[in-house]
């Protein structure tokens, strides 16, 4: 008899503990918490430690102090080259992509009946953009006997250059591929445009504003929080670009498309220079951190929040 | 916008000599289905059926894992009050901004030490531990469900756990579908993950198979390469056709990149 009561009270005690809000919360977030420690936090710390070592996966890591960082900044022209390629790519791609996304979102917000169709047409490239299939296709479009030259010939321009084989043009083919995939920022802009109260425009019309004035004075300021958001997401995404560059040009010709992520991959998995590439990934993290912080800081000057209106 | 994709589709029916002869002409002179037969044979004795099967295994199991685990975590964040919640939530949001390259090498070393390289485990196991984008998306969705429902269930004697399985889970099915679609699309297209962890052709996913198959130095049969590239886009395309609405909603609520 006493055994049974003991069992019951133990059972209810366990129940009470499991059902307390504090414990229940942790039980639910446990999968993420484990993943966060094992696959994010510990690896970040490990990357930081390994960045001060020489490590080829076979023999144990050897501590070398700041040597990787010194080598990177002082003795490695490829590091600087990959950095400048990546910065150029990011600073050209992101504004172009956002401009296209905004332009088409504006256009789609006017048309009504065919909007779902156009939305689909513009989104499909974004959806498939990361695939190897599209990368292979892109490669074939811009070869010397590819579609682009064929179309140019039709227009009377006889160009026999291979766009991806020429160091001056190769990066532009990758930029074009990225800009072609403006679908998801466009959808976010479209959602933002729907949020702008119609009454603002009506008031502007009464005041005699033309459509350019409406755009500059109402649409653009109201969209700034969304531009801000898209800017950060696209900036980070472009910094990490890998697959397209890796497959289409593999960093070439003459390193003209050597993205930072490709160079980092090479150092790690082709040269087995794990310490060096860990140092590279920390530099990447810091740069992305700084750029994100700068965008955040600058946002007080150009991002408009409606709630501040009364100030 | 769709011209490049259409060009690839139509080129997959063209004779090899025709593809680049008048490359701007879209429609093939003669429709050839031979490319699909040739392409399906794959390379080095590994037919594309092997790559498709591998991709389906990785994508479907990974997606199931990601959706279930993310739903559990999302409920914890959205509906439980516990100490340190704000802190952990902040950590989760930050991981969404973290470049993969920063964790890539230690993860690789870890999986190598575990002997998981050349298995699907490195691609599958992390999926079962929640994915921040989906967790965030589901949290947003759960916040839209009135709290009174939970309260009523609690009065009826439901524990937190049964509230989750009986009430919340069925109600957030649109968010589950949205996450599943994105998970499928991303995993299907994933290239870097398989590139790092799979080096045996019999384990290759479609991405890796396609890359081998269309290596410009080795392949001259572009008709067949385009045929397989076209086939590789079919699953994503079908999903898009059927679940467009969910895709759009997902992008709009979380600002998913891509």
How would you explain this protein's 3D organization?
The complex is a heterodimer of chains A (311) and B (258). With 311 residues, chain A is mostly helical. Chain A contains 14 helices and 2 strands. Chain A has a two-stranded antiparallel ribbon with strand order 1-2. The longest helix of chain A is centred in the N-terminal third of the chain and has 34 residues, at 77-110. With 258 residues, chain B is mostly helical. Chains A and B meet through helix 1, helix 2, helix 5, helix 6 and helix 7 of A and helix 1, helix 4, helix 5, helix 6 and helix 10 of B. Chain B: Keywords: Cell membrane, Membrane, Transmembrane, Transmembrane helix, Transport. Chain B: This is Carbohydrate ABC transporter permease. Chain B: Belongs to the binding-protein-dependent transport system permease family.
Give a short synopsis of this structure.
The complex is a heterodimer of chains A (311) and B (258). Chain A has 311 residues and is an all-alpha fold. Chain A has 14 helices and 2 strands, in the order ααββαααααααααααα.
- Inertia-based shape of chain A: globular
Radius of gyration of chain B: 22 Å
Q: Tell me about the biggest sheet of chain A?
A: 2 strands, antiparallel
**Total DSSP E strands of chain A:** 2
Strand content of chain A: under 5%
Average pLDDT metric of chain B: 90
Strand count, sense and barrel status of the largest sheet of chain B are:
none
Class of secondary structure makeup of chain A: mainly alpha
CA-CA gap between termini of chain B: 16 Å
